[in-house]
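Page 47, continued from p. 46.
Same chain as before, 258 aa.
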Amino acid sequence: MKIVTYNVNGINARLPNLLRWLEETKPTVVCLQELKASQDKFPVEAIAEVGYGAIWHGQKSWNGVAILARGTQPQEVRRGLPGEVDEDIQSRYIEALVEGIHIGCLYLPNGNPAPGPKFEYKLRWFEQFTQHAAQLLEMDVPAVLAGDYNVIPTELDVYNPEYWVNDALYRPEVRTAYQNLVAQGWTDALRTFYPQQRIYTFWDYTQNAYRRNIGLRIDHILLSPHLAKRLHSAGVDKEVRGWERPSDHAPTWVELTS
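Result:
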C-alpha cells in the first residue's frame, strides 16, 4: 500500500502533471494540499478517469485539501479540526477511511511573518491539530497524518539553517510543537528511512533552487504505531519537481506491507 502527500500548488494549473504522475506511479492513497480551487472547481471527473475516487475541502484561491483513493471512494470522517470557529475556518484538514486506515490530510498554516497574527494563528492551529492527533492515538486505530506541515523539524531538513532562524517554518516554537506531536507516539516515516541524509520535498521557484538542490523538508507522513510496524519504504518523487510547469513540492510517499 502506497500513501503519498503532494502539495500541488493549484490543482487545475498542475492537473496535467498530477494525472501523468497518477498514471505512472498508481499510488493507493494521495493526500493533496493547496488546491487553490473552490468546492465546485475540483476536477473530480478528470481524476475519476484515471481511476481515483476523491473527497475534497476546497477554498477559492487559497488552501484546500483532498484525499484520493485508487479504485474506491474514500469514506469521509471529518472536514476541519475539532474546535474550529465557523468564521475562522480555512480549508486545511480532511480525514477519511481507506481500507480501514484513518487518513488525515493537512495543510498547516505558513505563519509568516513571524512574530505576528499569522504566526499566532499557526500555533493555535497546530495545537488543535496536536489534540486531534492524540485522540486518534487514544482510539487505537491505524492512522496516517500526511501533508504539508510547513515545519522544518531539524537542521538536517534545510539547506542553510542560519538563513531560516527567524522564519515561521523554523522558529523554535514550531519545531518544538512538531517534536511534541511526534513524541505522542507517531513515526516520521521519511526520517526513519533517512536518519542522517539531507532529503528535501520542496524547492523554491527562485535561485534555480531545484537544479542546485537548495531545498526544504516540510512535507511529512506520520504513522501511528499500528502502521509503523508495517513501514516498508519511503521516499520522494523528486523528478516530478523537474517537469514542465511543476509545483514547488514533490510527491512524498511511504509503502506499507499488507
